[in-house]
Structures are given as structure tokens and as C-alpha cells.
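sorry for the late reply, my laptop died twice this morning and i had to redo everyting from scratch. anyway the thing you sent over, i finally got around to it. pasting the sequence first so we're on the same page, its 141 residues, then the predicted structure underneath. double check i copied it right bc i was rushing
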Amino acid sequence: MFNPKLRDRRDLGLLFLRVAIGSMLLGVHGWARLVKAFSYLFLGQPWTFIGLVQRMGFPVPVVFAVASALAESVGAALLIIGLGTRWAALAIGLNLAVAVGLELSKHSAAVELPSVYLIAIVAIGIAGAGGYSLDATRRRR
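ok and here's the structure:
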């Protein structure tokens, strides 16, 4: 009834999706945002993202800006290695939902990229990390 080859293909597909989406998030958004958060918190350098978070109406904008930076960097890294995958997907997904909402409120064509990221993150959150992940290794112990 259950075909092991289908399971391997599914696991390989989830590995590819996790690594691709996680790498894009980390490389394009997360690393730069994490460096800017670090520079703001520990070196006293300005960080314009806090102003955006404040204009969106979030209370304690520094906390939410840092949480966003952590979701896009640490969360993306966890997604890549498949550790705490569903929790990482939840944090990243919430972050992306805010980005999609912001772009929709501006009637911006830039809504496409965060929407595609969000769709992929929701799929990963639903499916889980798959067999080629640290989550799966931990389950087998």
C-alpha cells in the first residue's frame, strides 16, 4: 500500500524546498537584517527598519524588528537544516504574513515575492521537514 520510492521522492522534494527557500530568505533578507540588528543593538548604529515597524503600528518596535530579523535569519537557518522546522516555519510565516499585508495595503506589485515565500513556508509547515532533516534524525532516536 505504501511505496518507499514515493516517500524518498517526497523527502527529497521537501529537502529541496527547505534548502532553497531557507537559503533565499537567509541570503537575500535574513543575514543583512541580522547584521543591521546587531549593529543597532550593540554598536549604536541607526536601523531604519525600526521606523517602518513603528509606522506599521507595532508596540515596542525594537522588539518586533529584532524578532523579524531573527525569524528571517535564525529561522531560515533552522529551516535549512530541518531542526524545529514547524516552529521555524511558524515564525517565518508570521513575519511574511505581515510583509504581504504591508504590500497589499500599499497596493504594491511587490506583494508577489513575499506571497510566494509565504506559500512555500505554509507548505513546509504543513508537510514538516521530511526524512532528510535533523527533525527526522531526532525522531528516529
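The mean pLDDT is 94.
thats about all i looked at so far, will dig more tmrw
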